Amino acid sequence: MIAPSRFPPLLKVGVFPDPVEQALRDVFTLVELDELGLAGRPGHDEIAGIVTRSNYRISRELIDQLPGLRIISTNGVGYDGIPLDYARRKGVIVTNTPEVLNEAVAEMAVGLLLALLRHIPRADAFVKEGAWTTMPFPLGTTLAGKKVGIVGLGRIGKEIVKRLLPFRVEVAYFGRSRQDAEWMYFDDVNRLAAHADILILCCPGGPETYGMIDAGVLRSLGPSGFLVNIARGSVVNESDLYRALADRTVAGAALDVFNHEPLDASPLRRLDNVVLAPHVGSATRETRMQMAALAIDNLCRFFDTGSAVTPVP
Ligand code: 8YV
Q1: Are 67 and 47 in contact (CB under 8 A)?
Q2: Ligand 1 atom 5 nearest Cα
Q3: Helix/strand/coil (H, E, C) string of 191-238?
């Protein structure tokens, strides 16, 4: 029997890995949307907080259904799925879990890039299917000496650069403004794409970056160019990307995020020049537990003091 929480009940939006959900349940009474108001379960007006994950969306309508809502705590760094201005107008604070996931996401970006350049998933299948006895495996592409363009040199982008430099790459970046960094700055993503051999997307999702990587940028990247996306699917015009991959306007792409998730009947899945992953940039045991701890700290601190540890800026 779990002791009742000293905190108000939370609405849980999204499916959490078991250890993360258990960490939350150890502190809070969690309610699923379809349980609200059922016998013995909290009603809509008793919900003071939402705990969610950054790959889920929170609608204005849901916020309106919860008159006592005071905080939305997301496990994740992105908050493009939360109507921030609307939440603020309703007096609801939004918190995220920055920093603690930077290394895991940066590792995933490097892993996806190497998998793409060297055809590692296909190499695994090639050996396991016994094809090695029948034909040579296709040549890959060396990372050393390549020009890597970072789209969004934020905290995660900087961690990716740190990990790529030992591979003897040349770094350049695009962003809203030039930073105090030693890398070449481009104030236009098309020009960065024309300069780079590899584009790595690590910018936030949202209206400012929606569809930024389109047919024109992909043409600029060119037939020996590669794209890695560990940011948000919304940053890429996915139908433009599919066409560019299918007709070899670009050489290949490694994608951890998609316009619509989970990816279902997408033609991307039929291509041989892509590496696809199920939005797992932060998905390590260590990182997800650190994120859960920070999300819990945000909620506890807020309910106890009215302020949070990492409110979104
Ligand atoms: C979350 C994400 O890390 O952090 C983000 O912005 O993109 C997500 O992958 C994940 O949903 C946390 O459970």
Answers
A1: no
A2: 76
A3: HHHHHCCEEEECCCCCCCCCCCECHHHHHHHCCCCEEEECCCHHHECH
Please report the DSSP string for 100-162 in residue order: TTHHHHHHHHHHHHHHHHTTHHHHHHHHHTTGGGTSPPPP----TT-EEEEES-SHHHHHHHH
Give the residues surrounding ligand 1 with Cβ less than 6 Å away.
Answer: 53-55, 75-78, 101, 279, 281-282
Radius of gyration of the chain (CA): 21
Q: Find out whether 91 and 260 touch, Cβ atoms under 8 Å.
A: no
In a shared domain, residues 124 and 198: yes
Tens of pLDDT along 227-248?
999 999 999 999 999 999 999 9
Structure token digits, residue 242: 């599919």
Residue 245 structural domain? 102-276
Task: Name the token pair of 17.
Answer: 């890995």
Asked if 272 and 140 sit in the same domain, the reply is yes
Q: 291 CB contacts (<8 Å, ≥6 apart)?
A: 20, 75, 76, 97, 100, 101, 282
As a whole-number percent, the residues of the chain with pLDDT over 90 amount to 97
Nearest of 124, 50, 120 to residue 87 by alpha carbon: 50
**Structure tokens belonging to residue 19:** 């250890």
Tell me, yes or no, if 41 is annotated catalytic: no
pLDDT at residue 170 tops 70: yes
Closest CA to 226 of 248, 247, 205: 248
Residue 44 annotated as catalytic:
no
Note whether 80 and 118 are same-domain residues. Answer: no
Q: Measure 137 CA to ligand 1 centroid, in angstroms.
A: 35
Assess whether 87 and 165 both reside in one domain.
Answer: no
Virtual torsion, Cα 264, 270, 275, 277, nearest 10 deg? 10
Number of domains in the chain: 2
Q: Is pLDDT at 1 greater than 60 in this prediction?
A: no
> How many A from CA of 281 to the centre of ligand 1?
7
